[in-house]
Amino acid sequence: MQGYESIFILDPEVNQDQQKGLLEKFKSIVDKNGGSIVHHDEWGRRKLAYEVKKRSHGVYHMFYLDNTPDALRALENQFRLEDDVIKWLSVSVEDVEEEFGKYKKLKSEGTIAQNMIE
User: Fold this and answer.
1) pLDDT at residue 77 is higher than 80
2) 79, 8 contact by CB (below 8 A)
3) Hey, what CATH class is 3-117 in?
4) Distances from the Cα of 65 to the Cαs of 14, 71, 99, 102, 111, in angstroms?
5) How far apart are the C-alpha atoms of 96 and 4, rounded to whole Å?
6) Is the pLDDT of residue 33 over 90?
7) N or C: which end of the chain has fewer CB within 10 A?
8) Whole-model pTM?
């Protein structure tokens, strides 16, 4: 199934309750625009490669969405409006399940696993 991968970084000052509220808001925006989030993974708090909006850390999240361009457009518009989203990137993927499988493999035994240990 063709779709989208969207990675976004939240302000590290956002507490868990606010984070849950933002995630629910993002999910409802996708749903309202006819899309669905196939997979969601939280990477947790990590150091940024460079400062963004005067922040050196951020809380990373990744959504895999189905192939609904309107839902992705609405989600990215919301990212622009939210002060707590400090950066995001969305890309098109040929097969959502295949990409998620590759990601899980990297997370468990590849370079992502090594970086999470450090």
Assistant:
1) yes
2) yes
3) alpha beta
4) 24, 9, 12, 16, 24
5) 7
6) yes
7) C
8) 0.84
Q: CB neighbours of 38 closer than 8 A, spacing ≥ 6?
A: 1, 3, 64, 65, 66, 96, 97, 100
Q: What is the distance between the alpha carbons of residues 56 and 14, in angstroms, rounded to a whole number?
A: 14
Distance between CA 61 and CA 45 in Å, rounded?
10
Q: Which two tokens stand for residue 117?
A: 């240990």
Q: Domain map of the chain by residue range?
A: 3-117
| Dihedral, 10, 53, 90, 115 alpha carbons, nearest 10 | -70
In the chain, pLDDT over 90 holds for what percent of residues?
A: 68
pLDDT, tens digit (0-9, with 9 covering 90-100), for 83-96: 999 999 999 998 88
One DSSP character per residue, 21-64 reads: HHHHHHHHHHHHTT--EEEEEEEEEEEEEEEETTEEEEEEEEEE
> What pLDDT sits at residue 103?
81
In this structure, are residues 70 and 34 in contact, taking their beta carbons and an 8 Å threshold? yes
Residue 97 has pLDDT above 90, yes or no: no
